[in-house]
Amino acid sequence: MTDSKSSWDRYWAKGSAAALPLSDNEQRQLGQFWQAQLLQNTPKAMTSAVELAAGAGDLTAQLMSFFGLYRPEPVLHAVDSSAQALHQLQARFERIQPLQCDLAAVTLADHSQQLVVSQFGIEYGGEAGFREAGRMVAVDGVLLLLVHHSDSEIFRQCARNNRMIRFMQDEQFFTKVSHWFRVAQHDSAATESEMAAARNALMQALQHAQRLLQQIGPVSRQIRQFYQDCAELAAKVRSYQLSELLDWLERMQTELVDSQQRGEAMQQVAMDYQQLDALCRAQWHPWQLQYHIEPFELAGKTLGWFVKGNKKPA
Ligand SMILES: C[S@@+](CC[C@H](N)C(=O)[O-])C[C@H]1O[C@@H](n2cnc3c(N)ncnc32)[C@H](O)[C@@H]1O
Fold this sequence. Notes:
InterPro entries: SAM-dependent_MTases_sf
Protein name: Methyltransferase domain-containing protein
Strand content: 15-25%
Bound molecules: S-adenosylmethionine
CATH class of the largest domain: Alpha Beta
Distance between the termini: 38 Å
Number of domains: 2
CATH architecture of the largest domain: 3-Layer(aba) Sandwich
Structural class: alpha/beta
CATH superfamily of the largest domain: Vaccinia Virus protein VP39
Organism: Alkalimonas amylolytica
């Protein structure tokens, strides 16, 4: 697995439920958006559908609720490279057919799906992911995608988070925290001046972190919490067991570096209109899939691109 695929797998293994940095209100509006699009665009009779890069089921929940309108209900294949995501998904929705594979090589037949959908996922499969999506759409079938936008609120939030985590790595923040934990707990034979040096190094790093936080604007709750916990633990270090502190720090470091990998992968796959249009044209022309692209906005904020496609009979 690539780094970003395995970091997604670890993310879903923790039981994480959401992949997007959205408020509860935005999440509700996103659900309403999908219900409206499904109602307007899906065929009257539908038996087969596929969701690409389903994750832990944000969009799957919308699809399952919408499919309740059909008799019989369509079969939904849920594709993802993460076994952990699919495991969670199947625990939530017994009726789905999980398909663990890469977006670049999906094992469903040409023209076999009356509905092909993805929410901020297909772009992780690159050109081949777009080709596969277009290939699977049935004649008279529909394709509905939300795709990352290179000038969206989600992109900017990701960029801020990544900048903060990169700063922590460059500052050797994690090393400074663990060094202070050890020295302050008399785990080493540190002299008074070595203790003062360890403390000062950490205090300086915390001050730089605070300045950067103020300068770059809102970052994820996880990063803010980590910074606050470090500042608090630096002062109360003797109230905890050293082994507990070091375990916590190692866990946080893994989580933050994983989230940086996912964030960087997201920044790499996000596109502007020209890039997305060129990609859709090149990959879908051979499959005679017609498409339309528009910005996807919620409450006046651009969050991505909405791509709608359909395959007419030749
Ligand atoms: C941003 S998450 C989106 C998940 C879900 N659609 C949602 O909106 O919550 C991207 C998903 O794509 C999956 N993924 C990333 N690269 C992939 C690849 N090359 N093939 C299959 N799945 C991939 C990850 O495991 C993850 O679940």
